[in-house]
Amino acid sequence: xxxxxxxxxxxxxxxxxxxxxxxxxxxxxxxxxxxxxxxxxxxxxxxxxxxxxxxxxxxxxxxxxxxxxxxxxxxxxxxxxxxxxxxxxxxxxxxxxxxxxxxxxxxxxxxxxxxxxxxxxxxxxxxxxxxxxxxxxxxxxxxxxxxxxxxxxxxxxxxxxxxx
Length: 164
Fold this sequence. Notes:
The protein has helices at residues 14-18, 27-50, 75-99, 106-127, 135-163. The chain is 64% helix and 0% strand. It contains five helices and no strands. α2 (27-50) runs antiparallel to α3, α3 (75-99) runs antiparallel to α4 and α3 (75-99) packs parallel to α5 (135-163). It is extended, with a radius of gyration of 23 Å. The protein is an all-alpha fold.
C-alpha cells in the first residue's frame, strides 16, 4: 500500500520573498541597497546622455554636423529618449541626495551630484541639434522629480498641521 502523500509546502513568490519586511530587514541595509541601485541608475543614464545611442556624427556628409547625435535624426524617438533619460537621472540623483542626508561629507556629495547634473546638461546640449529638442521641456523634465518631492513634502506638512 502506498504511503499517504504529504501536502506540498506553500512557496512564497520571489517578489514577496525579496520585498522589504520591517521586522526582518534593517533600515541601514535597505538604505545601502537603494544607494547602490540609485548609483547604478545614475551611472547608466549619465553615460547614455553623454554618449547617446548610435554615437555622434564624425563628419559633415549628408548635412549633419560633427559631434551631434546620430539618434537625433529620428526626432521623436530621440526626444522620448532624452526626456526619459533625464527624468531617470534626476530621480536617481534625488534618491542619492535624500539617502545621504546628514552623512559625513554631505556638502561634497551635494556638490558632486549637482556638478554631475550640470555636466550631463552640458553634454546633451552639445550633442543635440538645436532643432530636435525643446530645451525648456528638457529642463522641466530634469526638475520634475525635485518639484514632485517638494510638493509631496508640502502636502504632508500641511495635512499634519491640519490634523494636529
